[in-house]
User: Fold this.
Amino acid sequence: MDAIVMYPSPAIGHLISMVELAKLILNHRPSLSIHIIVFDPPYDAGSTAPYINKVYATIPSIIFHHLPTITLLPSIISSCQIPETLTFEVLLLNNPNLHQALVSISNNYTIFAFIADFFCYAAQSVTAKFNFPTYEFFTSGAGCLSLMLCFPTIHKNTTKSFKDMDNLLHIPGVPPMPAKDMPQPFLERDDNVYQYFLDATIQLPRSAGIIVNTFESLEPRAVKAMTDGLGAPDGPLPPLPPLYCIGPLIASDNRGGSSHGGGGGDSDSKPEYLAWLDTQPIQSVVFLCFGSLGRFSAEQLKEIAVGLERSGQRFLWVVKNPPQLDTDLDSIFPEGFLDRTRERGFVLKSWAPQVEILNHDSVGGFVTHCGWNSVLEAVCAGVPMLAWPLYAEQRCNRILLVQELKIALPMVESENGFVSSTEVDKRVREFMNSEEGDSVRRQTKAMKNEAKAALNKGGFSCVALFKLFESWKLK
Ligand code: UDP
Assistant:
């Protein structure tokens, strides 16, 4: 039987995108069998088991293979500042297990292609021993991919860390990018994670093709820059394998996506927040949600609450406990906050079904950490964004969304990353009631239509997907 093997990074956002890619392939090639090789996340980001079990139970053509759990030395865990480091460590140690899994799958299936998440670049040294091509799956956008591809050249031409640079970086197809807005793990040159990402970005163009979760009409300049092979001021980009922009791939159902709680509620009765949303005027509610890892300090949460209250806007705010603080969230908010805002605000203290909420008629704006899945989900729902990046490549995404794609307004933090209540108040009001807000709203709605068109027969993404199938020489 013919098979495709996938190797996602274990973070829920990456896993969901890979599963959506699997579903897309199966829609067009239902006779294939898709094998997804998974391993436990090496840091606590909530278990992905409920999500995997649900996919497993509903789509028989997707088969999961669990690699044995790798336990890292406590010294490695305690010395690590950035969670991605641990993922890379585990991935390297997993190579013998991956090899074993591939041998066992090949005993019963003909593998046509192996698709590795960008983080799983180390797998290429294993798959090189087999007789099938390895593709990389890039779960962020084309602008960010262009930046990644330039990273090795920029690295070669400087001895400084990005965090110590004040200049703008000129990346093909991307607005000038302040060096300090480079992805968080790239900022400190001496950190192990910097080297891991450098290796990952060197490996990217060595794959048989790069599959990108974007669509050409969303990021035309970045896509063109890469396909034309334009050089960056720091030197030419490396020759690239084919790019396949097959997105937007978004979760069709992310109720209870992780063990943080089943916020959406799987029961038939309507959850309270949905009943509340039903009573709000059309496009009046600001939805605030900050991804699977977005956590704020108690001080920051209080400041957001003050800002939201002052703004006078309606809001649905997904709040997760601050790190290491297992307290009642109500005690963090200003006294009487929940009572005073009861009529026009709803605080949801659990995992929220983001896609469903974004598509509710009452939602008119999305305050987001700029994780790429959240961005695509907002675009597909036609909801404009207020960009408040927190980690990973989200500061780059803010520049792209605000300056290039013009589908977001920025939230502006102070030097230490803190956002004052005055800023929250001002930006939220501007977002919901100004010409700038209306302009990003119009542009996002236009992109929603472009997203639909891209996936339809003959659309950019549909054509790219069929080119990918051709490259696999599937019967
Ligand atoms: N998500 C959700 N409810 C939450 C938090 C996150 O449904 O309370 C989903 C969100 O819809 C998206 C994913 O989790 O599909 C987060 O991915 P993203 O790339 O936006 O951010 P990450 O969590 O990877 O930083």
The mean pLDDT is 92. The chain has two domains: 2-251+454-471, 267-452. The two ends are 12 Å apart (CA to CA). The first strand starts at residue 2 and ends at 7.
